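Before going further, it is useful to explain how the protein records used in this thesis are read. An example of such a record is reproduced below.

***
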Amino acid sequence: MGQPNPIPNIDVEKPLEKRNKQPNDKKKHSTQLNRSRDPFHPVKITVAIAVGLLFVLPIIWMILVSLKPDGFSTTNPLEWFLPPFTFSNYTNIISDTLILRWTFNSFIVALITTILTLIVTSLASFAISQMKFRFKRTIFIFFLVGLMIPGEATIIPLYETAKSLNLIDSYAGLILPMIASPLGVIILKSFFDGIPKELFESAKMDGCSNIKLFYKIALPLAKPALAAIAIFTFIGSWNNFLWPYLSILSEELYTLPVGLPVFNSSYSQAYVLPMTANAIASIPVIIVFLLFQKQIIKGISFTGLKG
């Protein structure tokens, strides 16, 4: 009989939770040591705080100016940060203007555009990546060439096409021309190319059709790419100015990028009411960013790596 294996030296007196926390404590201790060894760590922290304040200060100034009484003027910039403050500007603009309608239009247009873009780009990229048909390479080259053409160069034929289809001054006219995304097709196509072919071949042997391969295998694996495309499509649609400005005639269908300049042009010599309108338009965007900042950062890093 061989000798029994030696019993490992385990401190049974220590609770299990403390033993499990030891690696984390070591990591925290090592990071603290690295910070203490870095002579430039305080400088980096100071620069980061200064840059953060540089970006936050305009937002704070906008909110404080929007709270000033209507017609308030000053020669000293510091007076914008001092009382008096009032919320009457917000109630007046909400009741007397169409800014809430413009915000609703921007949100609906951006949301539907994002959903349709994801559907179209995912189907097109999956077909180019995994299906066999003639002229597949040529079609993909057309998508690559589409990235080289600026959007402004296609405005006139796009407007003529929308006019012939009676899409001018409608939600469909705002949404349908914007769902084509060559960049989205290229990103998703490169992602689908990276999926092992054995996975699709084994599914085909089990009787999966192309549609099932698409929505049961490809789409669940492509969630990071779809999230990145959704983020940038939504932001691009929300900030789009040129096409809504050309295709919308009635004020009720304005989006925020079109409605705000029209509103601000009526108060070219004033600060308070235009700042109040801009603050109302910025609040939804700030809330969305605070809620989805992790996804936005991941989307930026994903497109930077995969693009």
